[in-house]
C-alpha cells in the first residue's frame, strides 16, 4: 500500500521486526494505523535468509508477509494456513530435504517465485516489493538490506548456520556467540533510511533482540539513522517476567552477556539520550518493579500488558506503543 | 542398474529416444532385455530442456525416467501419476507460471532436486545418474550431452522456443525450420560414445525424427560413432500409414522437406551401407507396400505391427527390433 499523505493524517510509523512475534505485533499495529489513517513501514530482518536446495528462503520476510496478509497458520505461528508437503516428500525421496526444515507446498510457491525473480536480476528490495503486491497488506514491507547477510552460531565445537541451530537444534546447544560475517559492508535496502528519516514513530518490535533486531541495527547506517531521526523511538520488551514470550531469546541474551529481563534488553538498545536508541520502553505488568531501573537508564518506562493473546490485545499493545511516542 | 557382464548373456542395447513414444517403447525393450539377461542404455534427447522460473526442466529425460520407473501418468502419457498442482496455482497467484506449461507438485520435486544438484556443481550427466538411482529402472539413462542445447522453431514472423511452439501452440503454427544454436560445439555426455561402441544393437526409437532423434544425432561425434559401431542399427518408424502415431512429426517433417512416411523417415536417417545410420527399419503392416522402397534405399525392411497399444504389444515390437539385428 502506497503512502499517500494527502489522504492520511495519522502517524507515519516504522517498525523494526523479525518473524513470529514481530509479525503478530505488526498486524495489531497495522490495524491501529489503518484505522487512524497512518502508515506502516516494516523493516524486516533478513539475516536468517538462506539458500535451501537452490531456492532462496526468507523466513522472517515470509512470516511478516503471511501475517499481514492474514494467510499465516495461526496454530503453528509460521508458514501458510492449509499447508501441505507433497513436494517436500518428493525431495526426501530424492535424498534432499532436511527433515528439520519444513518446506510447504504453498510456501514453495513463494520461494520459487522469489528465486526466479532474483535469477532474472531483481534485487532483494524489488523482490520484496513484488511480494508486497499480491495481498492488500496495509503496510509496506522492506528488507533490511539487499546484501546476503548470514547468521552463524558459534558453539563449543564449531560454527553452524543459524537456521540449523534454531530450527534443528531448537537452540538447545549453548551458543558462545553469533556472527554476521560481512555485515559491516552491507548497505540498507532502498527506502530504509528514507522511511526512518520521514517517520513520526520508530517502533522496535518484541522480536529477538540478538538475532532479529540485532542484525537490522548491525547494518551500517540504520542505527545512526534512528538516533538522528525526528521520530520518537519506542521499544516493546520481548521479555515478560524474566522469560522470552516465545522463541529462545534467553539463550541468545546469555550468549551475548545480557541479563534476560526487560531492563537487560532496554540496556542493550540503550537510551537515546545516552547515545542509544530508545526514548520509551514498554514493559509488562509482571515486570513493573523494573520500571525504576529502566528509568535510571534514561528511558521512559511504560508498564502495560504485553501478552499478545489475541488480535484485540495486540491492537491495544500497539496503541500503547504509539501513545508512548506522544511528546510529554 | 549397472551392467555386470559376468551375470549377463543377453545383448547390450543402446536406445536413442525422445519423450512420450520413446519412453513407451523403452519400457517394452527394457522388459525384453531384463528377461533375456541383456542390458539397456537409453541416450535421451535433452534439446527440449529448459529453464522455467529458475528451475531446470528436462521433459524427455523425465518422461523416460517416469516411464521406466512405472510412475508415469498412463492416461496423459507424460508426467507423474497422481499428480497435483498446488505449487503451480501459487506461482500463478505470484504472476508467474505459464498456463500452457504444467508443473505438477511431484514433478517439481524432480525439478528442484535437479536444479539443486546443478547449482551445487554437478554436471548434467551426474544429475541424470542421480535421477537413475531412485527407482529400479532396469536400464541406464544418459543425457545426450551435458551442454545446454535449445531448440528454436522458425516461424514466418519470428523464432520461438520449441517448448512454447510444441506445448502452447500444439505445433499448429507452421514452422519454416528448426535450429539448435551451438549444437555444433556440444559434446556427447560421459558414457554416450562408450555405450555406443560397446553395444550389440543400437535402436532408434519411434520418436520424432526431427526434434527428438534429430538433436541427438546432431551432437558432433554421436552419428559417426553409430556408423562406426560394431552394433547392428535398427530403427522403428514413428510413422504409421502416413501419419505420426502421436505428436506432431508430420508438421516437423514437412518443415525439413521430408515426406511423412515410413520411407521418408528411413531416407532421413539413411542406409548405413550408404553413409547413413540404418541397417534395418521396422515399418507398420499398414505400410507394407513401402517395403520395396525402403529396400531400395539399402535398408532391410521389417514389416510388423507398430501400434504400442499395451505393454504386451510393445514388448513384441521391441523383440521384433532385436530380432531385426540378428545377422542374416
Describe this structure in words.
- 2 copies of one chain form a homodimer.
- Helices cover 37% and strands 16% of the residues of chain A.
- The first copy, chain A, is an alpha/beta fold.
- The first copy, chain A, has a single domain, classed as Rossmann fold (3-Layer(aba) Sandwich).
- In chain A, the strands form 4 sheets. A 7-stranded parallel beta sheet of chain A has the order 5-2-1-9-10-13-14, sandwiched between helices.
- In chain A, α1 (20-36) runs parallel beside α2 (59-69), α1 crosses α13 and α7 (192-198) runs parallel beside α9.
- The longest helix of chain A is centred in the first third of the chain and has 17 residues, at 20-36.
- Residues 1-6 of chain A have low confidence and may be disordered.
- Chain A binds chain B through residues 53-55, 84, 86-87, 89-91, 93-96, 105-106, 108-110, 112-113, 115-116, 118-120, 130, 134, and chain B through 53-55, 84, 86-87, 89-91, 93-96, 105-106, 108-110, 112-113, 115-116, 118-120, 130, 134.
Tell me, what is the CATH class of chain A? Answer: Alpha Beta
Biggest sheet architecture of chain A: 7 strands, parallel
Oligomerization: homodimer
Largest sheet: spatial strand order of chain A: 5-2-1-9-10-13-14
| Name of the CATH superfamily of chain A | CofD-like domains
Count of DSSP strands of chain A = 14
Q: Give the domain tally of chain A.
A: 1
Specify Rg of chain A, calculated over alpha carbons. Answer: 19 Å
What percent of the residues of chain A sit in helical stretches (DSSP H or I)? 25-40%
Amino acid at each position: 500500500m502506497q503512502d499517500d499523505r494527502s489522504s492520511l493524517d495519522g502517524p507515519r510509523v516504522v517498525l523494526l521486526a523479525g518473524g513470529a512475534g514481530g509479525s503478530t505485533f505488526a498486524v495489531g499495529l497495522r490495524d491501529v494505523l489503518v484505522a487512524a489513517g497512518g502508515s506502516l513501514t516494516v523493516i524486516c530482518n533478513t539475516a536468517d535468509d538462506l539458500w535451501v536446495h537452490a531456492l532462496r528462503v526468507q523466513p522472517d520476510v515470509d512470516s511478516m508477509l503471511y501475517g499481514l496478509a492474514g494467510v499465516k497458520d495461526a496454530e503453528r505461528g509460521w508458514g501458510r494456513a492449509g499447508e501441505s508437503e507433497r513436494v517436500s516428500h518428493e525431495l526426501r525421496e530424492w535424498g534432499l530435504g532436511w527433515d528439520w526444515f519444513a518446506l510447504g507446498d504453498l510456501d514453495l510457491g513463494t520461494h520459487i517465485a522469489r528465486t526466479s525473480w532474483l535469477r532474472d536480476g531483481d534485487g532483494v528490495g524489488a523482490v520484496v516489493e513484488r511480494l508486497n503486491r499480491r495481498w492488500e497488506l496495509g503496510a509496506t514491507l522492506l528488507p533490511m538490506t539487499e546484501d546476503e547477510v548470514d547468521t552463524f552460531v558459534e558453539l563449543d565445537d564449531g560454527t553452524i548456520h543459524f537456521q540449523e541451530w534454531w530450527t534443528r537444534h531448537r537452540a538447545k546447544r549453548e551458543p558462545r556467540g553469533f556472527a554476521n560475517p560481512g555485515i559491516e559492508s552491507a548497505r540498507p535496502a532502498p527506502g530504509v533510511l528514507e522511511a526512518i528519516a520521514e517517520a513520526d514513530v520508530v517502533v522496535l518490535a518484541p522480536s529477538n533482540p540478538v538475532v532479529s533486531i540485532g542484525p537490522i541495527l548491525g547494518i551500517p547506517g540504520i542505527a545512526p539513522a534512528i538516533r538522528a531521526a525526528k521520530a520518537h523511538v519506542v521499544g516493546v520488551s520481548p521479555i515478560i517476567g524474566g522469560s522470552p514470550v516465545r522463541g529462545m531469546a534467553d539463550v541468545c541474551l546469555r550468549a551475548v552477556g545480557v541479563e534476560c529481563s526487560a531492563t537487560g534488553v532496554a540496556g542493550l538498545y540503550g537510551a537515546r539520550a545516552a547515545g542509544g536508541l530508545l526514548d520509551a520502553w514498554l514493559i509488562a505488568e509482571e515486570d513493573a518493579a523494573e520500571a525504576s531501573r529502566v528509568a535510571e537508564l534514561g528511558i521512559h518506562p511504560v508498564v502495560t500488558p504485553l501478552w499478545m493473546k489475541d488480535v484485540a490485545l495486540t491492537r491495544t499493545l500497539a496503541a500503547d506503543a504509539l501513545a508512548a511516542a506522544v511528546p510529554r
